[in-house]
């Protein structure tokens, strides 16, 4: 293993551990009732997100979804601000006006988080179009689910990106469920990556639980984009360990399938691998995990201590400049 | 209109019972939408719960996430003479299916010279107050009401929910029934089985001589409670529940306001270019000179729906504003 | 050649000749100014339409587009009524209220003609869904262009039809242009038929100017649908000899490409083949053509002599029953 | 507002010149849409003619038939700081892109707490009278005006067309400019280069003391001609051209009607739940008691657009109805 690969894997683990700690904290707060929001856990998709953003700089663009905190953290969005947004506080990334489904943090390249399935793909095409026109060298990555691969926007976006050879990578996080609908009950393609054929672009399926493989596949896709060779469709197969939303018991999930997936839980798997390959020892990893926990605790405290937005925020930001027909209801 | 009974049901039960009764009565009724089968838990809001088990997955069809195809499939099946009931999980997603709904469902009867009606029903849910933010809470009924050929229904009680959904399913034209995410678990008296509530007719939910409050959907219950309180102060509020937004029952609205000479309109959608504008305009145009005070609209703020609960509660129409408007008009 | 094949080819020619005569008549009327409507000529796509509907009964369903008169004639819609509709007369298929972009004639199975690119595909899926639920044995065919294969509705419809194994055949009439945009400038797939891979269904590309080949490919697709084996995507490659709309000079079309296509003009090609193969002699074909001309002249006369719709038609058919807020403007 | 000159231009030229000037002035402006390149003829209505030759195909991008992707691409590029101008060939096709326009373009500034504005412009064409039937002629501006965060513009003259499109392109919020298919070849005086007409401000196109006619788009010219005729009979009509539908310039409208005490509203869209309702409602609500006669709306019929010219001409708003309404109000 090359030194750079060792460093990359360790850095993926650092990010994945932070995602996992953040997710666990949030679910803890939801369970205890300290927090009451709609929350879509990324549990199981931490490594995949970390390996994807490992190839991106702050000025590269990311578009993600309601199930997006793993992607946002991996891209570098500040944890304090993310937590504050989820808490609906004025100190949040979006002053509490967007919420967890609509996180935006341009300085780390988190450009759009959408709650509409599939709608991020055309927007990513637009970000990539701007890079193509300006020649700014940025790459856009858009993350979406398996269910999103069945919506019209997916098709239009991939076709357009292919025709225009845009610097964009479409990363499908195939966690085998779309809400409570199983993959094959909604998706006709044996493999989502096969759909790339219809756009004349490379389609690669990778085990999203395998950090090295994901690093490799996404790395090649980002390099193609960066080199002006056009878009790639990456299908990273993973699993959604929590229900669709926090509180969904997931009764529709098959127990054997679930157990088998859990046996391949990517975070402990990467941890074990790092030790087995001698990339890191137990103490180093424990330090990383402790650091993650500390950051998460600090973020939760920051959020909880932050004020709510004042009522003037209700009517600001509708337009750049206030227009006089906009009035605060009395 | 609907016989009240001792039994109480939630809105979720009301919609579910209407679907069940319609499917039992008529083989041409079928259901499609995301996660609607029992294998998938019977729908996000459980409205279709039990139906696929009872009627089979041929008549209760879980779809991919494909709103255009969901509505388009309903259009095609309706043209073939079926009575599809399509679920669009949340109303903001209807933006993805409006070509099928507006360019096709609403127009195929007309453009075919009356040959092919489109007896479909779209059920969709929305509303603010659940902390779902800007993309999951919009009330867009004004758009649909602007489209000749569509019928638009917004129920305010479980009994109405059931009776209006039944009428929509058996109506020969495309109907959109707008359900409220924050009301699914509220209860009200159950109607007798099979009771349909006619479309296109408003309902005087409470008679009163001093002022007409015209509302639909969620605010109706709150306005009725306010009317009870105001009665204590000697102000007799007439509450008109539109039930159907389009075709609008202008006659009932105008007769009420002609009697009371005062009107307040309340709805959850943003005010600008909303349903209240049409109602206010008709009152102004038809009862010009008879009004004792200006018509007042109380609506949600002219902004996207904010996420933070601190803002979302201020975004929504304010019942105290309705009260002040009534008191001012009745001074 | 089997007798049945000979009969089929002759019958395809009969239909194609009628389409060609109708189209020529309409363009003549438009040129002379006797008619003034938006008209999208199917010139070049006659044989393809005839070969497609050769496999369908009146109770099978057809969905087509603004460029649809070839499909409607092939499906059996009465010529008199079609012409009257184009003329905006009350005797038309739709009382003149739909017009050429919105022809409906349920008794011959012409269920929907849409002016919105791609929107016919989900509607066809709905017609096929009703057949699937009722088990009525009908097959639905939906015709659309190459440009339509790039719109979201295409993707959603094919995926849904595949997941539900519906009795529907998607016939893409690839005439190499979408308005004035050349195939490759809008379509990323090397062959539209390749997109079938993404839905796990058969995708067949055929020379749409070759009557026998088209009969064969569509025949197999219809048989699959009829047998409950699910949808097929057929890409029939053809050429659009006229501009996009009547009056479009088609300046953007390549002259060499055009000349090459014209050398393969399907109607004379089929005619020559019928004679070469001894299926029909010159006299028989001349009779068929004369019969077509006579029918077309009669239809044009019927249309021209028919009355316009009365003003009461303006407000009828908005709903099944009149609602009182519908009022004729004074 | 805009300096008139001897030069006359068509609407098509006006839009084309606005795009040309904007692209020359600012590298971040680019154009995308179906057939917009010169290779494809410069757009169905030739509005983008010459631009790809002058600015290259990187900045004038012909797209596939993909309305969602066209608007979505504009959203993404605008979020990145570009000023995309997307052409949606006909307004009925905007039904396919409303998710991007309404759930995203209109809301991203708000939902991001002001971080990411969406300075895109959507140009789209529509209108009845061309014999295009039910799916190519709808005026849907009321829908867009119901969405906080969008700006909606409908020009009535070539000079306005140019000035309003320029303002839209350089506005920091998403704007939709609605062009009329039947007006592209009409002429009017050309403005001086670079003249922008402010958004959100109505224009008194003709002052008059007896009655206010509020209109926008195509009817404005017809109403001005009518006003000339009526002046001969001693009726002085004030014509208010809204120019921008949303944000609505309520002040100008109300000040005009406060002066004239009479109002007629004219638009091409169907009446029910249309733009006229909001205007009528505001007049009724704000000027209650001051009006000398009821507000009247003259609109197209509440039906789909029929194909047959015999019906289409009756579908459209009737200028004789405007005349009767004025005469009746001024009696
Ligand atoms: C257009 C649209 N339709 C439906 C929904 C409701 N919805 C939210 S998440 C979801 C499932 C998405 O599944 P997938 O794309 O696999 O992503 P995952 O949630 O598994 O990450 C659905 C149907 C939505 N948000 N947007
Ligand atoms: C959704 C939509 N977008 C744009 C148009 C305008 N339009 C009409 S026909 C056409 C080209 C269609 O090309 P293709 O699908 O290849 O069919 P063809 O006309 O070649 O038969 C376009 C862009 C439309 N009618 N609908
Ligand atoms: Mg999933
Ligand atoms: Mg074509």
Automatic annotation (TrEMBL), chains A, C:
GO molecular function, one term: diacetyl reductase ((R)-acetoin forming) (NAD+) activity
Cited CDD domains: TPP_E1_PDC_ADC_BCADC
Cofactors that this protein relies on: thiamine diphosphate
Family annotation (InterPro entries): DH_E1 (IPR001017), PDH_E1_Alpha_Subunit (IPR050642), THDP-binding (IPR029061)
UniProt superkingdom: Bacteria
One GO BP: pyruvate decarboxylation to acetyl-CoA
Dehydrogenase E1 component domain ranges (all copies): 38-309
UniProt keyword Acyltransferase present: yes
Listed EC numbers: 1.1.1.303, 2.3.1.190
UniProtKB keywords: Acyltransferase, Oxidoreductase, Thiamine pyrophosphate, Transferase
Matches recorded under Pfam families: E1_dh
Matching SUPFAM superfamilies: Thiamin diphosphate-binding fold (THDP-binding)
UniProt name for this protein: Acetoin dehydrogenase E1 component (TPP-dependent alpha subunit)
Gene name of this polypeptide: acoA
From TrEMBL, chains B, D:
Cofactors (names): thiamine diphosphate
Keyword Acyltransferase among record annotations: yes
GO MF annotations in UniProt: acyltransferase activity; diacetyl reductase ((R)-acetoin forming) (NAD+) activity; magnesium ion binding
Record keywords: Acyltransferase, Oxidoreductase, Thiamine pyrophosphate, Transferase
Record EC number: 1.1.1.303, 2.3.1.190
Annotated protein name in UniProt: Acetoin dehydrogenase E1 component (TPP-dependent beta subunit)
Transmembrane segments: none
Top-rank taxon: Bacteria
Record domain Transketolase-like pyrimidine-binding: where: 9-186
Keyword S-adenosyl-L-methionine listed: no
């Amino acid at each position: 293993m090359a030194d750079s690969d060792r460093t990359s894997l360790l850095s993926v683990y650092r990010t994945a551990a932070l995602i996992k700690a953040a997710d666990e904290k949030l679910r803890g707060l939801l369970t205890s009732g300290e927090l009451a929001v709609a929350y879509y856990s990324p549990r199981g998709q931490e490594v995949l997100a970390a390996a994807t953003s490992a190839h991106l700089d702050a000025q590269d663009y990311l578009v993600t979804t309601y199930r997006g905190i793993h992607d946002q953290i991996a891209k570098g969005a500040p944890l304090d601000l993310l937590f504050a947004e989820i808490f609906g506080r004025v100190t949040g990334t979006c002053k509490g006006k967007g919420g967890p489904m609509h996180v935006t943090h341009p300085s780390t390249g988190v450009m759009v988080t959408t709650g509409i399935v599939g709608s991020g793909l055309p927007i990513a095409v637009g970000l990539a179009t701007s890079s193509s026109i300006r020649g700014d060298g940025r790459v856009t990555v858009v993350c979406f689910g398996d269910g999103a691969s069945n919506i019209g926007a997916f098709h239009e976006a991939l076709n357009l990106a292919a025709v225009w050879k845009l610097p964009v990578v479409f990363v499908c996080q195939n966690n085998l469920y779309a809400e409570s609908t199983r993959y094959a009950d909604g998706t006709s393609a044996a493999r989502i990556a096969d759909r790339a054929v219809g756009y004349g672009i490379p389609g690669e399926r990778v085990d999203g639980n395998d950090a090295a493989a994901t690093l490799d596949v996404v790395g090649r896709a980002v390099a193609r984009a960066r080199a002006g060779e056009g878009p790639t469709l990456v299908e990273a197969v993973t699993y959604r360990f929590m229900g669709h939303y926090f509180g969904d018991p997931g009764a529709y999930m098959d127990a054997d399938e679930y157990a088998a997936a859990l046996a391949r839980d990517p975070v402990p798997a990467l941890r074990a691998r790092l030790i087995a390959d001698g990339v890191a020892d137990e103490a180093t990893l424990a330090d990383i995990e402790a650091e993650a926990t500390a950051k998460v605790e600090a973020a939760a405290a920051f959020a909880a201590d932050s004020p709510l937005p004042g009522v003037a925020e209700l009517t600001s930001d509708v337009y750049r400049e206030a227009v006089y027909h906009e009035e605060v209801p009395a | 209109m609907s016989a009240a009974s001792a039994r109480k049901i939630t809105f979720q039960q009301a919609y579910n019972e209407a679907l069940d009764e319609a499917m039992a009565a008529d083989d041409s009724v079928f259901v499609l939408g995301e996660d609607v089968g029992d294998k998938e838990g019977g729908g996000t809001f459980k409205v279709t719960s039990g139906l696929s088990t009872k009627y089979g997955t041929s008549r209760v069809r879980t779809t991919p996430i494909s709103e255009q195809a969901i509505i388009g499939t309903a259009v095609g099946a309706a043209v073939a003479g079926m009575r599809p009931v399509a679920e669009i999980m949340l109303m903001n997603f209807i933006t993805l299916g409006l070509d099928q709904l507006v360019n096709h469902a609403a127009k195929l009867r007309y453009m075919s010279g009356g040959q092919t009606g489109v007896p479909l029903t779209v059920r969709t849910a929305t509303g603010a107050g659940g902390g779902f933010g800007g993309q999951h809470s919009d009330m867009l009924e004004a758009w649909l009401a602007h489209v000749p050929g569509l019928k638009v229904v917004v129920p305010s009680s479980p009994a109405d929910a059931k009776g209006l959904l039944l009428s929509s399913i058996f109506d020969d034209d495309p109907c959109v029934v707008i359900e409220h995410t924050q009301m699914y678990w509220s209860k009200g008296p159950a109607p007798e089985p099979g009771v349909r509530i006619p479309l296109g007719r408003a309902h005087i939910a409470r008679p009163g001589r001093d002022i007409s409050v015209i509302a639909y959907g969620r605010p109706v219950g709150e306005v009725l409670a306010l009317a009870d309180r105001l009665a204590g102060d000697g102000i007799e509020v007439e509450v008109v529940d539109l039930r159907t937004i389009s075709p609008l029952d202008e006659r009932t609205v105008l007769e009420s306001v002609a009697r009371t000479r005062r009107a307040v309109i309340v709805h959850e959608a943003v005010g600008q270019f909303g349903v209240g504008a049409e109602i206010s305009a008709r009152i102004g145009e038809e009862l010009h000179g008879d009004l004792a005070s200006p018509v007042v609209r109380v609506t949600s703020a002219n902004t996207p729906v904010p996420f933070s609960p601190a803002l979302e509660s201020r975004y929504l129409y304010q019942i105290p504003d309705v009260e002040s408007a009534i008191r001012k008009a009745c001074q």
